[in-house]
Amino acid sequence: MGVITAEKQFFTGKCILDVSAEVSCLYHVSYDARSNPEAIIIKISPKDENRRLMEADLRDFMNKLIDHQTWLDLNKEFGEIRQTIVAEAFSPLKKL
Question: Where are the domains of the chain?
Answer without folding.
Answer: 2-89
